[in-house]
User: What shape does this take?
Amino acid sequence: FDLLHALMEEAGFVLTRQGLIQKALGNDFSGAERTLDSHMRNLRRKLESTGLKDTIKTIYGVGYKLDKGIADA
Assistant: This one.
């Protein structure tokens, strides 16, 4: 939920992987940045199961972005 909350706070804007890790998981996070990809895949799957498809966009080489419309709903 921390990842979703961080994305919702910045809806419509791109968050870098490192920025998202710091914002959602804290500075203590010792895992690899690629671990974030697994968490995002799980979050997308959960959102899609509620009917919210394509709400989280991957910005190649940069990070992730939440569709602004989802945060306004």
Observations:
- The chain has four helices and three strands.
- The first strand starts at residue 14 and ends at 16.
- The mean pLDDT is 87.
